[in-house]
TrEMBL record, chains A, B:
Membrane topology: Single-pass membrane protein; Single-pass type II membrane protein
Family: Belongs to the D-glucuronyl C5-epimerase family.
E.C. designation(s): 5.1.3.17
Source organism, top-level taxon: Eukaryota
Lineage: Eukaryota, Metazoa, Ecdysozoa, Arthropoda, Hexapoda
Protein name per Swiss-Prot or TrEMBL: heparosan-N-sulfate-glucuronate 5-epimerase
Record field: catalytic activity: [heparosan-N-sulfate](n) = [heparan-N-sulfate](n)
Enzyme class: isomerase
Pathway involvement of the protein, from the record: Glycan metabolism; heparan sulfate biosynthesis; Glycan metabolism; heparin biosynthesis
GO biological process, one term: heparin proteoglycan biosynthetic process
Subcellular location: Endomembrane system; Membrane
Length: 557, 557
């Protein structure tokens, strides 16, 4: 799994200039503590002399000295050990906060429930990630640029998007919903330009009153609503458009004169942006669909497309000031909410069902380079993590909807997990013996840890959702995987952190250490599994690994 | 292998008192850089304010601050990261030397030669180690107290003793030899007390003139030699003693009035000491043997037995001032040398031949506790390292002497290496697949790295000494072991050091990180093997691991 540093809690303060300083001070190493000026300092003040610190005989750093104590600059410590630090102030008292890691561990409060939140995904916000190009206007799922700048549907990312929204739906308070026009109790006072037409009709399919509109080719020909909505930005409506039609949302910056136009147009183009006009294709099909858009996300992705800098908290600075319909079509049940998590969740579920291949897989259409001397994964590869996440999502979709298509899709998804890579699957064996579901099914395998554990969770979720039967393929595969995990987990222990994978073993290369957010993911995953399996290696490893994040280390002899 | 920190190059300066200081300075955090007194300091002097450093939110350390730069006390860094440091002075300029590790890597200058030095053992000085109780007066080999305070013959230690002397013999300059009495060209003027007898006779066995002596029971009845020998302290002589006889060496401190008596007595007691009288049993056999003793070592072990503190450089402070013969016996070819390396080497070789059991092993007569939850090794266990070191030593003994008994013993020593622990051997398998010669054949195995590599060297030495035949048991076992090593070596990589063993894998326990001297041993061993096997994993790992000793780390993602 490729993570963004979503949990980064502590801002890294790089104390710039210090190395330059060190150079400037070179050689002025007089011991000032012996000079008369010092006596003018009061007791709580200390005048420190400078002393050159020779680092492993390789280079020097300017340090300070007070008798037998030598003081080293944090700018050096930060670079040498990758420790994080910043000066903070509480009630005017400044303090330096030293942080061994920048990530956070979540201790589960109760046993993992396959119907509940997915691990710690309620903290994820997939769509804000830079590697998400935008949310597709047709499918309502993210498009990834992770290994392919043109953008592609990455099943892992889509499932994470869905699982994050599913989890947020459970943990966040009920959304605020403001109905703009429901054709019934709340009716917006639409402004119809002279050459345009608008009518309200009962739609036989939706069994609700909808707005039918027609405008001319003239740009000013519109059906418009003046709005003034702050704080909430998830717009949704039932929509059916004829060709060359669009829905435009007008956003205004409350502080300065700035207007942004989000156009949802009948097109198959994913996204297009020119200055303040951002276009999303919503497809050409002339049938009812529900359009649900996070307007702020849509605006930011349009900016990102133009390489404009990311802005801080635009949700506080903008308001929805209007809505305009052009061309011809029908619109109903228009509302703005603080969130529409379940809509996003089911968008992902629907995408998974409709995109699944006959072999049960969601092939990844991007080439993936893993490591030198390892052949690239060519477009069409399967990922155990995609399969596992998809199973977790589809199990929940079945649980929530009762729609057995989701369950069948989840079961089919086991296929690639049970096949070796040369048969289009992801199943590797460690030393011909221990099953490993490969997030990246390279040859040789590299045994990525976090993606494997996520896959195990998928298997667990499906087994649970199927009613926890005594025997089932999902159960067998889960148990085989747990045996591998409990056996091989110690090989991921560095004594001060964890390895992301075992490429050092299979390639004989330098180890690939997990950066702190992946390490924290490992720890979170292990705490979760320790609630499902009493083997002490899980809990003991979780605790030891959590300690590594506070600078503790395994003992040396 | 259990190492002493023989390679410790840098003295660790624990900057004591700093933590106390931190406590005293608590809360005096006025920013003195803003106070007028500061202007009195010249430019190269800086007055730093104090700032509290909160370490991972767990505890605090008093630091210094100069604008945006924060300075941390080395006393804290030392404890937190186990970094070593000391203030040194060159031409009056003081400097702080930061050392990531305290050990040293030896880059081999040429390809390893089984007839040459054994790895880096020319730097070893086995007999000075605290865990060596003394050198046996009968066998001339060290007695270990490593896991058994009463002392026992530890084959690994005995082989290391022999191999160190073999290596020193090749690397050190020719020894200085001072003949005291050879019965021919150099004759000492022995002082014979009134009631004692001394004669010179041609001994038919030695085919040399020897001294025959008889004294009475009176303490003053002696045959004595007055000596005045500084600098060199290895005494040797041909000796045959009747019961209740002894050779006494008198050592005098040149600085102060202090006399130490080393008594070599007809007894089977290993060592006995009372104040300045130290006794070594040389056995009861009435036949010629050569006694060769490092007098300084013998003196220090006598002191250690009485828990007297170890003294620094006694070789510079003492001189040999006399030699006294009591009882009855014969003595010949008496000399004092700077070293007698080959004598010590062959003492070890003879011990190995005479102590080897029918199954080819040298059982270790001490109980060994390895780790919690692992059954202790009970007296009589075999060590792959003992077997391997013994083979390395016996191969060299055969090379130097041509005596085929040594070669036969080396071949027999393969036996335990090729048997599993439940059949009295040391052969483990990693995941039922990769052979590992276990330094400590525990159940489950723990896969100690350095002892395994030493065993491989033994196998290589024997194969080479046998003429490098196309097929031989030693060759097969070496190659199987090298395959294991090259396969499993990455599992010992922590990304910033190395694991001593794989107990974390077999026990699911916390990893056992190799301290720096063991890590340096790993690196030395890998450089050596990289000269024998072109597989890039050996050289690449050696280089990466050497970098870890300068603070470099494997990359994280």
């Amino acid at each position: 799994m490729m993570l963004m540093r979503v949990n980064m809690r502590l801002v890294l303060v790089v104390l710039c200039g210090a190395v330059l300083l060190a150079t400037l001070y070179w050689g002025h190493c007089g011991d000032i503590s012996l000079r008369p000026t010092v006596s003018l300092l009061s007791e709580s003040q200390t005048a420190l002399s400078e002393i050159e610190c020779s680092i492993n005989g390789e280079y020097s750093v300017s340090c300070r000295r007070d008798r037998d104590q030598v003081y080293l600059p944090f700018s050096f410590i930060h670079k040498y050990f990758e420790i994080y630090g910043k000066i903070t102030a509480t009630d005017g008292v400044e303090k330096f906060e030293w942080s061994h890691s920048y990530s956070k561990v979540y201790h589960p409060k109760k046993k993992y429930d396959p119907r509940g939140t997915f691990t710690t995904f309620e903290n994820y916000n997939v769509e804000v990630r830079d590697r998400v190009k935008c949310i597709s206007g047709i499918e309502g799922v993210p498009v990834s640029t992770q290994w392919e700048p043109r953008g592609f549907f990455y099943p892992t990312q889509i499932a994470q998007f869905g699982l994050a929204h599913y989890s947020k739906n459970l943990t966040e308070p009920e959304p605020r919903i403001r109905v703009i026009d429901d054709g019934d109790k709340v009716l917006e006072n639409w402004i119809v330009s002279q050459d345009a037409l608008m009518s309200r009709e009962l739609d036989p399919e939706l069994k609700a009153n909808v707005i039918r509109f027609t405008t001319t080719d003239q740009p000013a020909s519109q059906v418009r609503a003046r709005l003034n909505i702050s704080q909430d930005f998830v717009l949704s409506m039932d929509l059916m458009l004829k060709p060359n039609s669009s829905v435009t949302v007008i956003l205004q910056n409350k502080d300065k004169k700035e207007t942004v136009y989000l156009h949802y147009v009948t097109s198959t183009q994913l996204i297009y942006a020119q200055e303040d006009h951002i276009y999303y294709g919503v497809g050409l099909e002339q049938k009812w669909r529900r359009l649900t858009r996070d307007l702020i996300i849509d605006m930011q992705k349009g900016w990102a497309l133009q390489d404009r800098p990311k802005r801080k908290s635009p949700r506080n600075k903008f308001k929805v000031s209007g809505l305009a319909l052009s061309g011809a079509g029908s619109v109903g049940n228009v509302r703005v909410s603080s969130s529409e998590h379940m809509f996003h969740f089911f968008s992902a579920a629907r995408w998974l069902v409709s995109s699944q291949r006959a072999d049960g897989g969601w092939p990844v259409p991007a080439r993936r380079r893993l490591a030198p001397r390892v052949p690239d994964l060519m477009p069409g590869w399967h990922s155990a993590m995609s399969q596992g996440h998809a199973i977790s999502l589809l199990s929940r979709a079945y649980h929530r909807s009762g729609d057995s298509r989701y369950l069948r899709a989840a079961r089919r998804a086991l296929g690639p997990l049970d096949r070796p890579p040369d048969k289009g699957g992801v199943r590797a064996l460690f030393m011909n013996r221990y099953v490993w579901y490969e997030e990246y099914p390279t040859k040789p395998p590299i045994f990525v840890l976090n993606g494997f554990i996520y896959t195990l969770l998928g298997l667990y979720d499906l087994h649970y959702t199927e009613g926890g039967r005594a025997a089932s393929p999902a159960k067998d595969m889960f148990e085989a995987g747990m045996l591998s995990l409990k056996t091989l987990l110690p090989l991921f222990d560095t004594g001060s952190g964890s390895f992301y994978d075992l490429r050092h073993f299979t390639l004989g290369a330098s180890p690939n250490i997990a950066r702190w957010d992946y390490h924290a993911t490992h720890v979170n995953q292990l705490y979760l599994l320790a609630g499902l399996d009493p083997d002490p290696v899980l809990l003991a490893t979780a605790r030891r690994w959590e300690g590594y994040m506070q600078g503790r280390r395994a003992a040396h002899n």
